[in-house]
Structures are given as C-alpha cells and as structure tokens.
Write a structure and sequence with these properties.
heterodimer, A: 214 residues, mainly alpha, 8 helices, 49% helix, globular, B: alpha/beta, seven-stranded mixed beta sheet, six-stranded antiparallel beta sheet, 16 helices
Chain lengths: 214, 599
C-alpha cells in the first residue's frame, strides 16, 4: 500500500466514525480475552481500546449534587472561559474528576481522599471567614479568590494552609489534565497534530528564525 | 499453515519449536521458515492484530481516565500492551528487595509479538568495542563473536524491518552499508536547538535510528539481498514489504501501527513466515519445560494451554527459546530431568546469572526560547529524530565509571495529555484563572526531556533463580530476582544528570527540580528500562557460560536461545536490533546443521 492510498483509507474510515478525530477500527471481537477480567473492578489488562468510554460506565461515580456544584465552581476558578476557549466545567471536566476519584486504582484512591477532604476544608474555611451558613460554592468571586490566593502555591503557603494548598495543586492538575485533553483544550494550546500527513516537513522557517537558528 | 488449536499440533513432529513471538522468536521463525523449515511457535499470550485493534488516532477524552497510566495499563490506556505490565495477573514473581536500589521490576507482555508491540523502536547497532568489553577494561565478559561476524546480519535486519538513520562515522557507532537505512525524519526545532547547544559543549548529536518506515521499503531489490538464490522467499518478502505503508507522521508508535509503518513482530516477521506455509502458531500456550529423550537430546516442550488449563506437549527436532531473557531462564531452570537436576543448560550453574538492565536517568527542563512558538505539527515519527551517541571513549579512565551511555532527548508540541498544565507551580508561582490559561499556552511545547541509556556491567549479585515456594496459577514455579548496581552504574547516572543539566542551561533553560548529584538516587530501578539481557550467557568455555557462540546450550546440542538471554554484556545500545541480528545468525546456523543432519 503506498502512502497516498493509506491516507485516503485512513480518512475514509475516520469519516464514517461519528465523534472521532481519527480512526476507530473494530475490536478483535469474540476471539479475544474478555475485558475487565483481570483486576476486579478496573478495566482489566485487555480492555477494548477502540470503544468510546463515558464517565460512570466502568465504575460507580462519587459526587453528590453538592460535590458537583463545588467541583464546578473550583474547576472554573482554575480554568474560566476566556476569548480562546470555554471554561473547564463547560467541556466536561467535572465528570472527568468524578470518574477519576471514583476509579478503583491506588493513585485515584489517594486523590479521592485529597479531593473530598479538600472540598470539606473549603466549606469550613468559607464558613469561618464569611459566616457559619456559607458554603464555598455560594461565595462571591472576590471571596473565592481571597481563599484561593492563600492556597494556590504550596511552596509559599502559610503553615496552616499547607494541606489545603496541596489539595489545590492536585485539583488544579486534574482540572488541567481534564481540560487540555478535550478538543477545546487542544485548540486552546494550538495543538495541530494527530492527523495523517503525506510528508513531514519539520519546523517552518519562521519557527527557526524565532529561536535564532533560521 | 496458520494459527492452530493445540489438538492440531498433537502427533506432529516439527523441525523446530520456537518459544516466543517477539523480536527473537519472530526473527528466528522468519529465518527458519524462509528456508523451508517447519516451525511451531508457542506464544503465552493471545492473538493480536494491530490492523484490527490499534487505537491509532484516538484522543485521550475517549479513554477511561484520559488515557492515564494505571496498574492495568502502566504505559497508558492506549498502549499496545495486552495482558502485561509490571505485574501479570496470576503470574507473580518475587523481589528480594522492595527498595529501589536492590529491586528488579520485570515487564512482561503476554501477547502475540510480545514487547515488540509497545517498544520505542530505537534500533542501534552495537559497535566493535561492545563485543570485547573485558579486553578493553578488564570488566565483565567478552562476546565469543565479533562485530564483523554480526555485521552482515545487522545489514539484513535493517533492510527487512526498515530502520531510519544516517551514517556519521563516529567511534564505536557503526555505519551501515549503502541501501540499509531509510532517510531519517527532519529534526524538530527542539532537536535542532539541543544539537546546536550540545555541540558547543563538545557533545555530538546525530540522526536517530528507529524501526519506522520514512518511505516504503525497496521491495524490488531488497528481497534478493536478503535471500539470494531463494526465489520463493524473495517473492513472499516482496509481497510482505508491499503491504507495509510508510509513516503517516501521526499517533504514537507504542499504540501499534495498523498500516505496518513501524516494526512489530506481528506485522513484519510473522506475516511472511505464515505466508511460507511453514509456520504454525499456538497462542495462549505457555511453555514451561523442555523435554529430553533418552539420549539427552531435546525432543519437545511442555506447555499450558491457558484456555483449558491443560498441560500438553509438542515435539520437534530442535528447540529454540526466545521467551525473553528471564522467561527463557525460568524455562531452563524448571526443566529438571534426572540428568540435569539443576536445570537443563545449567551444568555451569550460570542460568539466571548475570542479569543486566540498562542504566537510566532523566532530567527535564523548560526552555524560554521554545515558548510561544508559532503552531506547527511536531508529531513526526513519534520519537528520536536525533540522539547523542556516547562520546567520551577517550576519557574512560578518568570518569570514575567504565562504560558509556547515549542520550535520548525530546521536546515539542505533542498531543496534550493528562500531564499537560500539571506541575507548573515552579514556573507560574501557582497561578489559576485566566493567568493560568495564559501560562499553559506559554509553556506548552517549551519543555525538553533528556534520558540517559547506559551500559551496566554484569555482576554476581544481579540474577534470577526459581523461588522455592511461589508458583503461578498453573502451578509452575516462578522467578525470584536479586539486584545490585555497582558504582560503575551509579556514577554513570550522576554523570548523566550533570551533563543534562549543562545542556539545558546552555539552551538558556531551567532544570525542573535540579540535577541529582547522588547517582544512587538518580538511577532508575533495575528492570525499569525493560532492556534486561543475560541469564543464559554465551561464551567460549562450558564452565562459565550457558551456550556457545551459536547460542546452542553446552548441555543439549539441539537446544538454542535467541532472545536477550545469551548477551554477555549489555552495551548502551538498545538491545532489540542486536537480538534480531543474532537470532538471524543463529537460525542460519541451525538450518546449516539441520541440512548436515547434525541436529
């Protein structure tokens, strides 16, 4: 098969696959070892790689409606909408974080504790700063940023904020990971790959010029 | 002949049983069948076809957990590895230490094609020095073969599988003859910047060598060079080469390549071997014991049919182990007829001994010059467009460690993943909100990564043996690993750190987390580079080696080993290309001896 034929074929397959940026080939099917066989509640060592997965279909989710509200507010404090892209919650990051902290793996289990305890801390902090009945989610934007400013940088956080700062760092990482792995996030950083090319040209002249190698 | 059921192998006597379907097993079966030998291949994992299964263009949001690493899929959801990883359910191994300095981690892939499916495809030839390390510095072992003996097979493997690269004429970094290599891909801007600054420090940077087709293979001329006088083989290979497409310059090779643009045993070695009509493959069939006849010759292999759990036996004139270095050692040690109570091939006591991995250490940096570059596609061939071969041969006596390393580096505006935007506090001071989005845009694509890959010298304290207690779920005794680095390795890791820091600084960049001056902390865990070799080393003397120069066990004349186990040293060059070249050499030898009726 020459390259031109290959690319035509790849694009043809992509075109008939709704919601996909590229190719989805059929799975090996009945002959293959059953998915989810090996490690209990995880997806196992032989999952179907060409299927589209949705949060909640592999393991039960965790967030209550209050959690979701908190998660949304926090996601959008970290990644708000701007002229380049929507906010994190608008592209499904709350669902992703719920999927993440609910996963039956060790790392995700640790993050579950960090996130849920962090949420509880934020509500306690909101109540202590702004009145006993306030939840963090219900605060005004200036009140949100007043708290976030104290916990956004663990290296410079006051000792009493250190644990909350570690939570915030983890939550920011998860929010970013969730956001930049969406089509809108890829567009935001101007990622232009993952498409078949007839040839690879390397960096264009303006790029080389900018780094002083032109 | 094709993929068969165990019952179809019963009652048949093959010329050769090959245990394993990866780089060593794939090459062995290919060479044997192209010359007409009837081969049965035993593979412990399931059948796999990347044309049907490779998730080539899938994006992370379609996967669970945005494709992140989990214990089920340690290299990420879309990694090609099936039923593998650092642990395989039901197939444990024992580590004598849980702490990094004494720990050995074992990566397995129980699938057709084995670890050739996920590997980095970095394909470097060992150089002439790498075959006689002991003669040069008194450490470790020389090989019983020279570079010159293996060179024709490197040529053939490069032409068959397709390797890009260039000839730079550097010391102990062999050139390939004309017609062997495909053109290298154009460097990324980060490659060019690293090359420019490295050269100012006296560090060479040259084209990388990887098993990826940057253009279609020369199916008109190459087959006659690979199989002179064998028109049947030539036709089969030409057809197989025609079916492989050149690189699409997108999607990670480690997911598998549905168009056959990279080397995987399943897309390169096995199709022509199957097309010859001489290869039968039994998947889900885990070999665990070599059987001998009354004369002490191997007559077959016992295996577990994993689907039924039954123990079965296959028979052949010759047995070749290519199950991976440690698994081959395990099979030898678990084969204990009364004539070899310590294991077949183990009269020297050296089976499992001199296990080696590659010395690894890494440094990341951020380079302001690479910030905010105009968007352009940097997917390329997925890795190693350029690299640095070891360059300090003349300083060997002054460095405090005996052997060298090469540098694999990378950067670029690659597909954002779960780590994009993560861990930026050291650059952003903890920004969030609109400022955070601006920061991510600014820093995306401005990171560079350096990994050292260095030579470990074999030692008496790094080995595997059969654990006296533990067994896998079929009752087969499992391996227990012992591990210890020497100062040759830890000092080398410290040197890597220092060097990478210097290069990043020369680029005007910042090192993340600083360089680690303590080599024992800088070095990656044993086994983690997945370059393990040794365990059945070849040599000139039956007293201190397991096989002769033909990778034929001293104990049993018709038993051979063609994976990494016979390596008496582990040069900094990634071992896969050498495994294939050596397997082709050994398979040619087996064919010649079978023709002479010697085996």
């Amino acid at each position: 098969m020459d390259r031109r034929t290959t690319i035509k074929w790849v694009l043809a397959v992509a075109a008939v696959t709704p919601g996909m940026h590229g190719v989805a080939y059929g799975h090996a099917g009945a002959g293959s070892v059953a998915a989810n066989a090996a490690s209990g509640q995880g997806y196992g060592t032989d999952p179907n790689l060409t299927k589209i997965y949705k949060a909640g279909e592999l393991w039960p989710l965790t967030f209550t409606s209050q959690h979701r509200h908190m998660a949304k507010v926090l996601c959008d404090l970290i990644i708000p909408a701007d002229t380049s892209s929507p906010s994190a919650s608008e592209v499904g990051v709350v669902d992703f974080i719920d999927e993440w902290i609910s996963a039956p793996y060790e790392q995700q289990g640790r993050d579950r504790a960090v996130v849920l305890e962090g949420f509880a801390w934020l509500n306690r902090e909101a109540a202590s700063r702004y009145g006993a009945r306030k939840s963090f989610a219900a605060l005004a934007h200036e009140q949100h940023t007043a708290i976030c400013d104290d916990i956004c940088f663990a290296a410079k956080a006051k000792p009493r904020f250190l644990e909350a700062a570690r939570f915030f760092a983890r939550y920011r990482d998860l929010t970013a990971g969730g956001f930049y792995t969406t089509p809108q996030g890829r567009k935001d950083v101007r990622y232009v790959g993952n498409i078949p090319l007839p040839r690879f040209d390397g960096p264009p002249p303006e790029v080389l010029k900018k780094v002083g190698l032109g | 002949m094709p993929f068969i059921e165990p019952s179809a192998a019963d009652g048949q006597t093959y010329d050769v049983i090959v245990v394993g379907s990866g780089a060593g097993g794939g090459q062995t079966a290919y060479t044997l069948t192209m010359d007409g030998a009837r081969v049965l291949m035993l593979e412990a994992g399931r059948k796999y076809d990347p044309a049907l299964e490779a998730p080539m263009f899938q994006t992370p949001e379609l996967a669970p957990l945005r494709e992140a690493s989990t214990p089920d899929k340690p290299f990420g959801f879309y990694d090609a590895t099936i039923d593998g990883g650092w642990q395989v359910p039901g197939e444990p191994y024992v580590q004598t230490s849980n702490d990094a300095p004494g720990r050995f981690d074992w990566w397995r892939a129980r699938m057709l094609g084995g670890r050739t499916n996920h590997w980095g495809r970095i394909s470097l030839r060992n150089g002439p020095y790498d075959f006689r390390p002991r003669s040069r510095d008194g450490l470790g072992f020389d090989w019983p073969i020279s570079y010159e003996e293996l060179a024709p097979y490197y040529d053939k493997v490069e032409m068959l599988i397709g390797v890009y690269g260039a000839n730079d004429g550097l010391e102990n970094t062999p050139d390939s003859p004309p017609g062997c290599l495909l053109p290298p891909p154009k460097p990324l801007v980060s490659d060019l910047l690293i090359a420019d600054r490295s050269r100012k420090l006296g560090i060479p940077v040259i084209a990388g060598h990887r098993a990826v087709l940057t253009q279609p293979l020369d199916w008109k001329n190459t087959p006659a060079k690979l199989h002179p006088g064998n028109t049947t083989a030539q036709q089969i290979v030409a057809d197989a080469m025609k079916r492989r497409a050149a690189c699409l310059w997108a999607t990670p090779c480690g997911r598998g390549c549905s168009v056959g643009a990279n080397y995987q045993s399943v897309t390169v070695h096995l199709p022509p071997a199957l097309a010859s009509g001489k290869l039968d493959i039994l998947t889900d069939s885990m070999a665990y014991e070599i059987t001998l006849d009354k004369a002490g010759r191997a007559n077959g292999v016992k295996y577990v049919d994993k689907r039924s759990g039954q123990q079965r036996q296959a028979t052949a004139r010759v047995v070749v182990l290519a199950a991976s270095a440690c698994e081959s050692a395990r099979i030898l040690l678990n084969s204990k007829p009364s004539s070899f109570p310590n294991g077949v091939g183990n009269s020297s006591g050296k089976v499992g001994k001199y296990l080696m991995d590659t010395v690894g250490s890494a440094v990341d940096g951020q380079v302001p010059l690479l910030e905010d570059l105009p968007p352009h596609n940097e997917d390329g061939a997925d890795g190693l467009h350029m690299y640095t071969p070891w360059w300090l041969y003349e300083d060997a006596g002054k460095l405090g460690f005996a052997r060298g390393y090469h540098i694999e580096f990378g950067g670029g505006r690659r597909m954002p993943g779960i780590g994009t935007g993560a861990g930026l506090e050291w650059l952003t001071g903890g920004s969030y909100g609109r400022k955070f989005k601006e920061d991510v845009r600014r820093y995306y694509g401005s990171f560079v990564h350096f990994s050292g890959r260095g030579e470990m010298i074999p030692n008496e304290r790094s080995y595997c043996e059969i654990d006296p207690v533990a067994k896998d779920k079929w009752g087969v005794p499992v391996l227990r690993f012992h591990w210890q680095w020497s100062e040759h390795e830890t000092r080398q890791a410290a040197h890597m750190q220092k060097t990478f820091g210097q290069i990043i600084e020369a680029m005007g960049g910042r090192v993340r987390g600083g360089v680690e001056t303590d080599g024992a902390k800088a070095i990656h865990t044993g086994g983690s580079i997945i370059h393990e070799v040794g365990g059945a080393i070849m040599g000139r003397d039956p007293k201190d080696s397991v096989t002769n120069k033909w990778c034929q066990t001293w104990d049993v004349a018709n038993l051979f080993v063609t994976d990494g186990a016979p390596f008496p040293s582990n040069a900094d060059k990634n071992p896969t290309l050498t495994i294939m070249a050596n397997a082709w050499r050994v398979a040619d030898h087996i064919l010649a001896r079978m023709r002479r009726k010697e085996i």
